[in-house]
TrEMBL record:
SMART domains associated with the record: HTH_XRE (SM00530)
InterPro entries tied to this protein: Cro/C1-type_HTH (IPR001387), DUF5753 (IPR043917), Lambda_DNA-bd_dom_sf (IPR010982)
CDD domains linked: HTH_XRE (cd00093)
Organism: Micromonospora haikouensis
Domain HTH cro/C1-type: residue ranges: 18-72
Name of this protein: Helix-turn-helix domain-containing protein
Pfam families found in the cross-reference section: DUF5753, HTH_31
GO molecular function terms noted in the UniProt entry: DNA binding
Amino acid sequence: MSERRSPTIRRRRLGAELRRHRDAARITIEAVAERLECSASKISRIETGHTTATPRDVRDMLLIYGVSGAESDELVQIAREARQKGWWHPYSTVLVGAYVGLESAASSIRQYEQQVVPGLLETEEYASAMIRAARPDFTTEQVQQRVRVRLGRQSLLTQDDPVDLWVVLDEAVLSRPVGGDAVMRGQLKRLVEVAELPNVTLQILPFSVGAHAGMDGTFTILSFPEANDPDVVYAENATGGLFLEKSDELQKYSFIFDHVRAAAMRPEESIAQIAKLAEEPLWKWRPRGSVGT
């Protein structure tokens, strides 16, 4: 069992295995629910990883499917591990815990961002300013909680087995002085520093590209170290986020990301431009146009 794997990814793997065994046994969700004297929706949510199954639930389900021995014991153990709390649990009221759980288990992350610096790359000051602006209804404590979580997530980039991060930033991200001159300058310097890590690739998609494949919005593709854990796409919007797992959806977003990064400036050019902006806050005076114009 990989140390990287979170309770979220364990629930996801467990649900997929239970669904596979149920399909192999040719038993309907309704029949399982009747045998276990529970609702069909509970079985469905267990199979989709949206709820945690107890070890007894898992053992009883596997008995119905005719699964026993070492395989049953392994899945019951996964159920026990899935009930553990992730480090982000105390902050579960202020963020989508499922995303952080998947992110903490990922071996690689590909991200296209249209509006703001991604959480894994933000400074404390930038994160605070962005959250305050985006959520004026938040109390000071709620803002601080969100900031603490974002900073905690960043350990993924420097841990012993760090995640591979590839980010394409729309030029608009660099053109918007979140928090003012000093905060934005500090954030740009932070981007340059993080880009020096061997597991981080950073590119700018300039305005001069015009229309491009990623214009529908920001998204993240999460990939995992084990072949049995398929990729997940997370598309965020003002009301929350959407997880996409179907093969055609994954292919679509992988295609989009490949086209976006191909259209973007090369990594070394991108970092040089960000470093220049960090020393000369061009957003103060430059006309609308492309990076470097």
